[in-house]
Design a protein that fits this description.
Blueprint: H1 14-29, E1 35-42, E2 45-56, E3 61-62, E4 69-72, H2 75-88, E5 109-115, E6 121-127, H3 134-139, H4 153-161, H5 170-178, H6 195-207, H7 211-220, E7 272-274, H8 276-287, E8 291-292, E9 295-296, H9 300-306, E10 329-331, E11 336-338, E12 353-356, E13 362-366, E14 371-376, H10 383-396
Antiparallel strand pairs: 1-2, 1-14, 2-3, 4-7, 5-6, 8-9, 10-11, 11-12, 12-13, 13-14
């Protein structure tokens, strides 16, 4: 394992960078989280890098800079980049209906919750007014949803269908999804969803490759992200970061995906693992407008298009309580994008963009400050608190 901490302050206060370590270590000592790795890069220099606490609280193995994390939804930006590479290849238009490539999703119905004559809630199925487009998938306005976040009759149908199982194949996933109602009319509401899983299947259909092979050829190998994928090979499994057995607040068991075997379904929305430095290379490419070390992944204009707000023409899209980007943020093609100096819960800059993962991983890019910040842990129930805390501490440390 690599050594834990190297610090090269660049435009930051030494004292306030040290405070990040002190505050996080205090929470680790209090057993709020098992451990974390953190990094700030500014103007091409690493300003802060730390690995704290335990990689595996059961065995006592210490956290390391090269520990391997389940990144869950931080898979989404990688897959979204893969889709936009297809656009640049002339293989699709984001205005295309999804059914052009995935005919299973044609003529879907929208589930409207009503009360039946006997007073019980029921779903009325009505035709979709328009088909979901590839752009809808990229910006989560497809009408799809997740069964695992929140409650509704449509979400209950997701749970019952088994569409969220990792044991299905891509074909099984599409077949099951095609039988489910949409939660909203396409192109009207931002709803966190299986949209990026559908994009993963779309990439497989268009490329003729499995999703892991496509991403490896087009993104991971060119960026030298050699430790990012959908599973961890046996010789490296001793580096997998693990959670506590139970959450410190609720006492409920914590169950995360097992990355030791390649899953049947390669989830484009949440199936990958990665390391701090691997994901840094992806983030560097984004900050550098599509290119890293001579490897051009996307054009400058395509990347700028992705990190623009694609919800501005839909004023009602962000009003629901389930709008995860939150106040002050719109959503682009795979990223939440800051649209206001105020309103948000934390400091930042108009134009900064970000996403996170269920188990507690988080990254953002601030182009104005030429900064990348990454926080990785495996503590799902604590993720909201530490996303905000880390972001506050990073901006507080700036000179």
């Amino acid at each position: 394992m690599k050594t834990n901490a190297i610090t090269f302050p660049a435009g930051f206060s030494d004292e306030r960078l040290a405070a990040i370590t002190r505050i996080m270590q205090a929470d680790i000592d209090a057993r709020r989280i098992p451990g974390a790795v953190m990094l700030i890069e500014s103007n091409g220099e690493i300003a802060y890098e730390q690995a704290l606490g335990l990689q595996d609280p059961a065995s006592g193995v210490p956290m390391a800079i090269d520990s391997i994390f389940r990144i869950y939804s931080m898979t989404k930006p990688i897959v979204s980049v893969g889709v936009m590479m297809m656009v640049e290849d002339g293989k699709l238009l984001i205005s295309d209906p999804v059914s052009k490539y995935l005919p299973e999703l044609k003529d879907l119905k929208v589930g409207i919750e009503k009360i039946s004559v006997d007073g019980k809630p029921m779903l009325e199925l009505v035709p979709a007014k328009q088909e979901m487009t590839v752009q809808d998938l990229l910006r989560h306005t497809s009408g799809l949803t997740y069964g695992i976040f929140g409650e509704s009759l449509v979400k209950s149908e997701y749970i019952k269908s088994g569409v969220e199982s990792r044991r299905v194949t891509s074909a099984d996933f599409m077949q099951r999804l095609s039988q489910l109602p949409l939660a909203y009319q396409p192109g009207t509401v931002w709803e966190y969803s299986r949209s990026t899983d559908v994009l993963g299947v779309l990439l497989e259909r268009l490329s003729g490759l499995t999703l892991d092979s496509y991403l490896k050829q087009r993104i991971l190998m060119p960026l030298k992200m050699h430790e990012t994928g959908f599973s961890v090979e046996p010789s490296q499994q001793h580096r997998i970061a693990e959670p506590f057995a139970t959450d410190p607040d609720s006492g409920k068991p914590i169950r995360l995906l097992d990355p030791r075997n390649r899953p049947s379904f390669l989830s484009g929305g949440g199936g990958m693992v990665s390391t701090l430095h691997d994901y840094l290379r992806f983030a560097r490419m984004l900050l550098n407008e599509g290119e890293l070390d001579g490897a051009r992944i996307l054009s400058r204009k395509t990347l700028q298009f992705m990190i623009s707000d694609h919800l501005s023409s839909m004023p009602g899209a962000t009003e629901g309580v389930s709008y995860l980007p939150g106040p002050g943020y719109g959503f682009g093609l795979g990223f939440a994008v800051r649209t206001a100096t105020g309103a948000a819960k934390t400091a930042g800059t108009i134009g900064d963009y970000l996403w996170s993962g269920l188990a507690g991983t988080y990254f953002w890019i601030d182009p104005h400050e030429k900064m990348v910040a990454i926080f990785l842990m495996q503590a799902p129930e604590q993720r909201d608190h530490y996303r905000q805390l880390y972001r506050n501490l990073v901006y507080a440390a700036m000179n």
